[in-house]
Design a protein that fits this description.
By secondary structure, the protein is an alpha/beta fold. 31% of the residues lie in helices and 30% in strands. One of its GO terms (biological process) is methylation.
Length: 293
């Protein structure tokens, strides 16, 4: 099992998490922030495959605190106990509903609701089973988009398990769907989930760092682009995403806290996209933007 390390500390508010996420991204594979139960503080956790030098982490946190306008928090860094998180996650994963979508694990032996669009999904080493507010928000937004218009081509950028590409395929007649992720393990999970849901001929998972893969970076190629990642990468990818979405096409963005909406929206409005709708679940925001025809 791969060694994993965690850097964690408390913050006085959700608003202060944005700068901290940005300064820790060079060290961390995943950064998450959540409210501490029974307290006014928020806990930020950054997970790394290698533990960075103490002085570099200390400087990054000090820089982030200065940007956020707060005192530099004390942090703890160390190895994460080696637990089989895949098995633990799969045991705790129960079916969820998000609009017409019904997402269930492979060990589910109950009845799939009539009229639902059912997705069999095991997380494995990837993110996205429909339980998190960002994934659920994207599923609801996909349903809303497909009620309004037809989609022939779609890109799920940062696909994790592939759940959003699979949902788009099930709810539409799209024949050209691409699911990409920087993590080869996530792409492997996506390939398996497409096979389980019999969509391997319609959804093509590939490894790519953002839009670096040439075939993904074609101007106006996609009727729909979905990106459920962190606020920082969403802002950096704004020019590229705006370039590859077709005129009149839609962009679904998530992975951002409600207080990060303004910064993310500003990045996309500068590229000529406009806000069509938003959904907020459990403190997380999902945005729907469109490009003028």
């Amino acid at each position: 099992m791969t060694d994993l390390y965690k850097i964690e500390f408390l913050l006085p508010s959700a608003e202060s998490s944005g700068p901290m996420e940005l300064v820790l991204e060079p060290f961390a594979a995943v950064v998450t922030c959540f409210e501490t139960p029974g307290s006014d503080t928020w806990r930020l956790e950054a997970y790394c495959t290698e533990l960075p030098p103490y002085d570099l982490v200390e400087k990054a946190i000090s820089d982030g605190a200065r940007i956020a306008g707060i005192p530099a928090p004390e942090f703890v860094a160390g190895p994460v106990p080696q637990i089989d998180w895949v098995s633990e996650n799969q045991k705790s994963f129960t079916p969820i509903r998000a609009g017409r979508f019904f997402v269930y694990p492979s060990h589910f032996d109950g009845k799939v609701p009539a009229g639902s669009l059912s997705i069999c999904m095991d997380a494995g080493m990837a993110f996205g089973t429909g339980e998190h507010g960002t994934t659920k928000g994207c599923l609801l937004m996909i349903e809303a988009v497909l009620k309004r218009r037809r989609v022939a081509t779609a890109l799920d950028l940062g696909c994790g398990t592939g759940i959003l590409a699979i949902a788009t395929a099930l709810a539409s007649k799209a024949t050209q769907l691409t699911a990409s992720d920087i993590d080869p393990d996530a792409v492997a999970v996506s390939i398996e989930n497409c096979r389980i849901n019999r969509l391997q001929t319609r959804v093509r998972p590939v490894v790519s760092d953002g839009l670096d893969r040439r075939e993904l970076n074609r101007p106006g190629a996609y009727d729909l682009v979905i990106a459920n990642i962190l606020a920082g990468p969403l802002q950096r990818l704004a020019p590229g995403i705006a370039r590859v979405v077709a005129p009149g096409g839609d962009v679904i963005l998530s992975g951002l806290l409600e207080d990060q909406e303004t910064a993310v929206l500003a990045a996309y409005r500068r590229q000529g996209l406009y806000l069509r709708g938003r959904k907020r679940l459990d403190g997380w925001s999902t945005l729907l933007l469109s490009r003028k025809a």
